[in-house]
Task: inverse folding
């Protein structure tokens, strides 16, 4: 079976968040179980500058009543035979950080380009996708374009990695796509006729909709009653009352080739479950030395500085931990205001808090290897990869009880969960973690249980395979 996977980003070529990792790891894992997946994303300037691929061909699309030419570039995913394609809009360049209305239009034209690319790749590479797997709002118009404009009978799966990004904009985008009223009146029903919710269109028109954990799938159906997306979720449920109307939850995995303390080149001392105690100690010594911190129980935070990630909760908590004799290291970039507050926090407690407002994969590896605990105070977390990575490195997660965090951490066994949004609960969990660490037998058991938990993509890939098979039946 052939699956075309598409989305905003794909590591290692272009990565801004967890979706980038999924777009790299999922096709690899599918390949191992006999599914031929290929990936297509926009050819942003950031990718061009780094890779400068050779053009393989071009085709045209009609967008905004003008004929635009789209260049096709490709590369094999390193160390695999999986082709990744990059589409280049020659006139209106695809830009990775485009804002506002232009952003909706840009991704609409990218979606149209992907649908036309299906013809191109079938003809030029003799490869016909049996399924198109879309990810997030950036590719959520594809099901509609495929069905109503191109009349192509290829089943579509839409995976939601974050429901809070929906792509809301002017309905005029449909004119630009040259989709006439008769074709789109269905989606105007019950909404202001001037607005389009791109993710919503995907939810209504995709053959199947999934998300990245079972708990988040439940939260989507339960917690979004007042959100603009609710009408679309309801419509889908009503129109497809059987299994198809539901949102299916499949937990992501992590790439064990990249995240493996036994082979990790970025860390000071490689280790596995047999020598983790000395391995982690050496990495911790190295980490603390580089930051000028004393040897104490060490907690870290790794992630985007965004409201979703609950840094305000962590900041509030840290203020009450001065007497605990711990280290707290915070790594991440994002919202300038949050960044500023974190820096101030580090200035306030110079002997035990460090803030590194940078994007550094290498430093993240060192933190996973050298910390004792990782704090993940997310307000919501569709899946979360950080807890899985940390656990593989024997770093115990202390995380909000929500979404994928809840589905991947067994409270008290391989990590600790606390009620989301509550700094008092986080403080209590931190104290509890310190007590566990004092009880060496219990702590050892917990670390080993975390390190041994299977978060490889293999399990999830099988579940995706089952979904795909259902879709082509
Ligand atoms: O892991 C990849 C990622 C998730 O929880 C994460 C998120 C965005 O918020 O599926 O997407």
Result:
């Amino acid at each position: 079976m052939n699956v075309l996977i598409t989305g905003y980003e794909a590591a290692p070529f272009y990565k801004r968040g967890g979706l980038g990792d999924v777009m790299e790891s999922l096709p690899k894992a599918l390949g191992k179980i006999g599914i031929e997946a290929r990936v297509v994303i926009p050819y942003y300037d950031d990718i061009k500058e780094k890779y400068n691929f050779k053009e393989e061909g071009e085709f045209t699309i009609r967008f905004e009543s003008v004929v635009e030419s789209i260049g096709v570039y490709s590369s094999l995913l390193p160390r695999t035979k999986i082709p990744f394609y990059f589409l280049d809009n020659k006139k209106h360049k695809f830009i990775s950080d485009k804002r506002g209305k232009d952003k909706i239009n840009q991704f609409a034209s990218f979606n149209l380009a992907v649908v036309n690319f299906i013809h191109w790749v079938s003809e030029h590479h003799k490869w016909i996708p049996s399924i198109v797997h879309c990810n997030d709002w950036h590719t959520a118009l594809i099901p509609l374009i495929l069905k109503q404009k191109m009349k192509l009978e290829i089943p579509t799966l839409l995976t939601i990695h974050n429901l809070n990004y929906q792509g809301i904009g002017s309905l005029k985008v449909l004119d630009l796509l040259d989709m006439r009223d008769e074709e789109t009146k269905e989606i105007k029903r019950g909404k202001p006729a001037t607005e389009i919710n791109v993710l919503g269109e995907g939810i209504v028109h995709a053959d199947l909709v999934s998300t990245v954990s079972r708990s988040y799938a439940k939260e989507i159906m339960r917690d979004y009653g007042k959100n603009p997306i609710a009408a679309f979720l309801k419509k889908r449920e009503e129109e497809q009352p059987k299994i198809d109307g539901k949102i299916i939850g499949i937990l992501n995995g992590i790439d064990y080739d990249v995240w493996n303390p036994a082979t990790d080149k970025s860390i000071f001392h490689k280790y596995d479950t047999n020598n983790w105690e000395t391995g982690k100690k050496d990495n911790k010594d190295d980490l603390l030395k580089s930051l000028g911190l004393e040897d104490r129980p060490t907690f870290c935070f790794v992630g985007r500085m965004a409201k979703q990630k609950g840094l305000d909760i962590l900041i509030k908590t840290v203020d009450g931990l001065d007497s605990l004799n711990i280290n707290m290291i915070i790594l991440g970039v994002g919202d300038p205001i949050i960044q500023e507050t974190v820096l101030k926090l580090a200035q306030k407690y110079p002997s035990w808090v460090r803030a590194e407002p940078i994007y550094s994969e290498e430093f993240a590896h060192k933190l996973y290897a050298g910390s004792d605990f990782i704090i993940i105070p997310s307000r919501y977390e569709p899946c979360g990869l950080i807890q899985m990575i940390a656990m593989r490195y024997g770093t115990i997660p202390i995380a909000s009880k929500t979404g994928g965090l809840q589905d991947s951490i067994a409270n008290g066994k391989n990590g600790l969960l606390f009620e989301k949004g509550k700094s008092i609960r986080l403080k209590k969990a931190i104290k509890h973690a310190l007590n566990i660490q004092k009880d060496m037998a219990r702590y050892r058991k917990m670390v080993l249980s975390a390190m041994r938990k299977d978060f490889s993509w293999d399990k999830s890939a099988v579940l995706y395979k089952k979904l795909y098979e259902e879709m082509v039946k």
User: Anything to note?
Assistant: The two ends are 12 Å apart (CA to CA). The pocket of 1,5-anhydro-D-fructose is lined by residues 17-19, 22, 161-162, 212, 252, 381-385, 404 (CB under 6 Å). The chain has two domains: 2-253+458-471, 276-452. The mean pLDDT is 94.
